[in-house]
Task: structure prediction
Amino acid sequence: MTPRKLIAALASAALLVSPATAPAQSGGALPMPPPPAGGKPAQTAAPAPAAGKPAADAAGKPAAEAEAKPAEGAAPAAAAEAAPPAPQKVDPAIFDQALKDYFDGDPRAAAGPLYAWLQQAPKTDENYAWGQYFLARSLIDLGLTHAGASYLARIARERSNPNVLPRALDTLKQLTDRPHDDVMIDEQVFGALDLGFLPEETGAYAHYQQGLVDLRVGNERWANTHFAKLSETSPEASHAKFALLVTRLKSVKEPSDELITDFLGLSKDEKLTREARNEAALAVARLRYERKDYTGALEAYNLVKLPELDPGRASLYLEEAWTRYKLGELRASLGILTTLDAPSFRDEFLPDKYLLRALIYRDLCHYLPAKRAAKELTRRFADSLEAVRNREDLTEDARLRRAANAHGGTQRAARFVETLDLEGERLGRYAGSFGDRLFAHLTKLYDLSRAEAVRIHQERLAEAVRQEADTLLRAAEQVRLMEYEVGLKLYERVKKGAKVVAPEDEQDLSPTNVAFRFGGEYWNDELKSYRVRIESRCIEETP
Result:
C-alpha cells in the first residue's frame, strides 16, 4: 500500500462519515401554525355577468362602451400608467384544509393545495413559511426527499419566520443521513448559516459543517475556530477531531506516535458511529503498516467490528492478507485470499489479490501455481488493460467504472443520482393527486437536479477511474516481473548437496476448535477462519 493510496483512503473516510442524526419526529407531534391574521372571512368574488349581457365596469357602463372612449382621444401612455390590479385575497380555508389533511395522515391530499396556496399567497403572509414547511414534510413523507429538501433549504435561506427555521434545519439535518445534495444542504445551508440564533444541537452540526468547508479549502485555523465551539461530549466533536487528524496526515511525511494514538482513541470512542470507529481503526492499521509495525497493524485490523454474519469488506481482508504475508504467515494469508474468492467479492476490483497469491506460491517454491496466478490477473483484466493501452474513454469500462463508484466522493455522487432516478419514477404515481401545476413544477425540479448531479458525478468519476487504472497498471507491471522471475526459477539448476527445507510445525487444534475440509461452499461466519495447508518445496543449499 503506497502512502498516496493511504492518504486518499483516509481522506475519503473523513468525508464519508457523518454524525449520527436524531430520530425523525412524527408529523403529528408538530404544533399547528397560528391562524391567518385578522380571522376575517375571505372576500367573495364579484358575480359573473348574466348570459347575453356585456359585463359592466365600475361606473355601471357596459364594458364595450368603457373601452371605446380611451381609444378615441386618450394618449397611449395613459393606459400604460394605469395602476396595476390589487392582489386577490387568498382564501385561508385552503391552507387550513391542507393542514388538516396533513395531520390526518394524508400528505398526498395536502401537497397539491399547499402548493396552490403558496403560489397565490404573498411571501409576507405570516403562514407562508409554515406552508413551505408542511409542503416539504408532505413530500418527504411521500418519498420525495429531494423535493422536500429544496423547500426546507428555501426556508433556511429566506429566514422569514423564526419559529419555522429551527424545525426546517432539524429536518434537513435528518436528511443528511441519506444521499442528498451536498452543495445545497451542507454548503449553502449549514455552511453559510448565521450561528448565533440556532438551538444547541443544530448549531453544533452547523459548526461542524462550516469547519469541514474550511478544511477543504485548506484553512485549518478557521476550522479550529468552529470546532472549538463544539461540546466535548457531542458526536460532532469526535468527527471534527477525525477530520483534523486526516488533514494533518496530509502534511507530514512520517506519522508520529501521537497521531497514531489519537486515531486509536477515536476507534474506541462510543460517541461515534460503528462505521466511524472502524474508519479510525483502519487508519491506525494503515499507519502502522507504513511504519513496518506489522504486528501492531494486525491488532488494529482486529479492532474493526462488523455486524454479525456480515461478509465484511474485501479491501479490509486484502490489507490483512498483505500484513500476514509481511509477518511470514503465508498459509494464513493464502487462506484470506481464498475468502476473497467467495461470491460476495467476485465483482470487487482487487488486482493486488493475484499478485499476492503469486508471491506466496513463489516463496513456497510452487512455481507453476505462481505462474498461473500471475497470468490470472492479465486474463481477468484483459479488457480494461486493452482500453488503457488504446487510450479509450475509461469511464465506459464497466470494471473500472464499478471500482470508481465503490468509494469516496464518487460513491456519494452515484448514490445521489440513483436516488433522484428513483424519486423521479416515484413522482409519476402522484400525477393525478398533485394536480398539473405541482406535478409540472416537481418534474422540472427533478430534471434540473438530475442534470447537475450527473455532471458532478461525471467529473468525480473521471478522476477516480484514472486512479483505478493506475492501480491496475502497477499491478500488471509487477506481475510481468513476477512471471519473468518465476521463469528463471523453473530452469535453475539444483546444486549438489542441496536438500528440501524442513516443513514448519503446525499448531494442533484446541479442544474448542473444529476443522473441516473446504468443499467450495462459503459461509459468512467462516470467511475469517480459512487456512491453507501447503508444504514448501524450496531447497536449502549447503554451504
About this structure: Confidence is low (pLDDT under 50) at residues 13-31, 35-80. The two ends are 37 Å apart (CA to CA).
